[in-house]
Amino acid sequence: MTCFDTAFTRCPLIAILRGVQPHEALDIGRVLVDTGFTIIEVPLNSPAPYQSIALLQDTFGDRILVGAGTVTSPDAVGEVASHGGRLVVMPHADLAVITEAKKRGMICTPGVATPTEGFAALHAGADALKLFPAEQLGTKALTAWKSVFPRSTRFIPVGDYS
Q: Sheet harboring 107-109: ordered strands across?
C-alpha cells in the first residue's frame, strides 16, 4: 500500500488550498489536519505556492501527504520536489509530467477526461485518476469507467471552481 493509499483510505478527500498565501497556509493546514484531512494540495497558480508547500511539508509532512496541483510541466515537478512536496496533481494527462513525478518517487494524479487518457496515465504510473472537469463527465461516466478500469483504480472527481 502506497502512502497515497494509506492517506486516501483514512480520509478520501483532498483539501485544495486554492489562492492561499504562505502566511495563511499553516493556520489552515492545522485546522485541516486536526479535523482529519490527510492530503493537502497547493495549486501552483496560488500566490507563492512553493513557499506554502515547504511550510506545510516542514510542519505536517510526517502526518500527511503534501504537494501541488495545477502541475503542467516536468520542470514544475522538480520545483515541487525541491520544496518537499510529495504529491503532483495535474489538470491534464501529460505523460512526461507523470514520468518525471514517478522518477522522483512522487505520487501522481493526472487529470483525465477520456478512458484513453486514463489507461495511458495508469500505464505511465499514475497513482489515481483525477476526473476533470467532473461536472462535464458526470456520474454515469464514472460508473461506466469503473466497469472497465482495474478494480484498484482510484478516481478523484474535481471541478466547478465557481
A: 15-16, 39-43, 65-69, 87-89, 107-109
Residue type, position 34, single letter: D
Catalytic residue among 24, 41, 117, 140: 41
Predicted pLDDT at 1: 62
41 noted as active-site residue? yes
- Distance spanning both ends of the chain, measured CA to CA: 35
Rg (CA), the chain: 15
CA distance 14 to 23: 21
With a cut of 80, say whether residue 16 has pLDDT above it.
Answer: yes
Catalytic residue among 24, 100, 103, 130: 130
Hey, what amino acid is at 116? T
117 is catalytic: no
The pTM for the full model equals: 0.94
**DSSP letter (8 states) at residue 84:** T
Find the helix or strand (DSSP H, E) in which 77 lies. Answer: helix 74-82
Least confident of 13-27, 96-110, 134-148: 134-148
